Amino acid sequence: MELEALRSIYEGDESFRELSPVSFQYRIGESGDPKAFLIEISWTETYPQTPPIISMNAFFNNTISSAVKQSILAKLQEAVEVNLGTAMTYTLFEYAKDNKEQFMENHHPVNSTTSISNIISVETPSIAPSSKKKDKKEQLSKAQKRKLADKTDHKGELPRGWNWVDVVKHMAA
C-alpha cells in the first residue's frame, strides 16, 4: 500500500525516482543547488518492522564530504527509530526536505573533479611527448592529394591492373 501511496504522491515530481518496487531515490533541493543531495531508501524483507536501508552513495553526492553524509544519515536514522513499525519512506523524504538547511550547514563543496584532474595532469607529462609523435598523421600537399585522387576511382580504390608492370618484371626475373 505504501508503494501505491508513494507513486500517487510523487507522480510528476522530477525529484522522485523509483529504482525498483522496493528502492527509491529522492533529490533534496533543486538540480542546480550546490547544497542539493540525493537519498536512496531501500526496503528490507521485513520492512516496516525493521529499518530500511538508507544510502547516500549516489554519484550525485560526490561533492558532499563524508562527514556531512554521516551526519545526515545519523539524523535520518533517528527519524527511523521514531517511526519504526509504520510506513516511513514519505516521512523520511519530507523530514530531509524540511531540514535540508540544517543538514547542509557544515557543507563545503568538495570538488572531486579538480583533485582527479590534478592527479592526471601530474602523471600525464611523462606519457604525453611519446604519444604526440605516434598520433601525428602525415599531411599531404594539394598536389599530392590530386595525384592520389587521379590514381584512384571515386571509391578511393586503385583500378584493376594498376601494378601489372611490377608483376611482369617479377615473372621475368
Automatic annotation (TrEMBL):
It holds the Pfam family RWD. Residues 1-103 form the RWD domain. InterPro entries: RWD_dom, RWDD4, UBQ-conjugating_enzyme/RWD. Residues 127-158 are annotated as: Disordered. Gene3D superfamilies: Ubiquitin Conjugating Enzyme. Residues 147-158 have a biased composition (Basic and acidic residues). This is RWD domain-containing protein 4 isoform X6. It comes from Heterocephalus glaber. The lineage of its organism: Eukaryota, Metazoa, Chordata, Craniata, Vertebrata.
